[in-house]
Amino acid sequence: MNPDKFYSKLGASFKPGVLTTVVLAAEELKRQGKKIIGLTGGMYDEPNFPWKEVKEAIDEATEADWRVMLQYGSTAGLHSLREQLAAWMKGHSIEADPYREMMITTGSQEALDLVTRVFLDKGDVVIVGAPTYLSALGAFRTVDPDIRQAKLDENGMDPEDLEKVIKQVKAEGKTLKLLYIIPSFQNPTSTMLPMERRKRILELAEKHDFLILEDNPYGYISFEGPMPTPLKGLDKTGRVMYTSTFSKIVSPGMRIGWLVAHREFIAKMVEAKSNISISNALPSQWVAAKLFEKGVVDQQIEKMVKVYRKKRDVMLEAMDASFPKEAKWNHPKGGLFLWVTLPEHVNATEMLMEAVQSGVAYIPGNNFFTTSTHNHMRLNYSHPSIPDITEGIQILGSLLKEKI
Fold first, then answer.
1. DSSP 8-state code for residue 69
2. How far apart are the C-alpha atoms of 302 and 162, rounded to whole Å?
3. CA distance 332 to 42
4. Average pLDDT, rounded, for the chain
């Protein structure tokens, strides 16, 4: 049998991504008894999971509660969780009707998939940051849109460059459908979009009549004061769709994300979700609602900000000591990542497997662009232990010095 002849065009397009490649290589090294330090995905710091609080919530569940949790649930999500989320987001300047303007998703990745299914057709123009979240690009590419890039600087997406891209799209006789943006501690650069830029980007959306998908997994992990008001909190006409997730603030394993959008958009996406998963698991949603109700979510965010600030500082100190002076990197004020720019002659993509064989892994920067690039890397400090951060950066620094 030849498996290739049975795939759809979309199915045939799925190839192992960089994370899959790194994981497989790491598993092989572990089988050989070798250590691999992952500075890759934005995973949670495992010793600080709120497992006691989760266990306590489950222990308090009554028979009536379990009858709810073990039954089918609303595709839009458990009512009590949506109510708790609406109250919580109001404290972050987002007001939403929990019954009509909000839905629960399987992490924020499902939200990206739903927006793609409901709003994008082949050839539709989507603008993203250069660079941007690699799995957002993966979700959009399933429908083969026309993806354009707007430049980022130290303050996030540049509205002037965004406007240039919009004008170029119009000059080609095309219409911009969607802007995808991560304003707060952007992935992969951890940049923070200032308030004046947020307002300007909304003005451009009104002027040129396009939708905005605001992705905010990281904004609550802020080391220097609260994040600015989300774009959704400034939106007056309903053109901003907002998604966030439990994955970075409480637990990725609970698979809780949410979407806030115009009620007609939510209705469409709820119908789309009903064809995929019918509803999220009720036990996770029930526990999440209890964690909000008990104040655990805010307590956990406060705790993790301290943990990740310390880890960021350790990584920065290690890079100052071990990296070649020709390498440049940012000093994130929140989020989970460091963005490194190397001299042009250094190929971070080609160097990855050499690094893995030496015992450390990272994500090459080319995965975050739609155009070719080779001299960037993203490093994660949220998941590895402090000793592993120091060791991993020392290994990486030695390799870079050989290349430079």
1. H
2. 34
3. 14
4. 95
304-325 tens-digit pLDDT: 999 999 999 999 999 999 999 9
Q: Say how many Å lie between the first and final Cα of the chain, rounded.
A: 48
Q: What is the pLDDT of residues 136-169, one digit of tens each?
A: 999 999 999 999 999 999 999 999 999 999 999 9
Tracing tokens 């109250």 back to the chain, one arrives at: 87
CA pair distance 220, 249, nearest whole angstrom: 7
Domain ranges of the chain: 3-49+299-403, 72-295
Instruction: Indicate the fold that domain 3-49+299-403 takes in CATH.
Output: Aspartate Aminotransferase, domain 1 (3.90.1150)
- With contact defined as beta carbons under 8 Å apart, do 291 and 250 qualify? yes
Does the pTM exceed 0.85? yes
> Looking at the domain covering 72-295, what would its CATH class be?
alpha beta
For residue 216, which of 108, 292, 118 has the smallest C-alpha distance?
108
Rounded alpha-carbon distances, angstroms, from residue 78 to 90, 117, 124: 18, 23, 33
Q: Do the domains spanning 3-49+299-403 and 72-295 agree at the CATH topology level?
A: no
Neighbours of 173 (CB within 10 A): 6
AA letter at 91:
G
Q: Tokens in use for 179? A: 């802007």
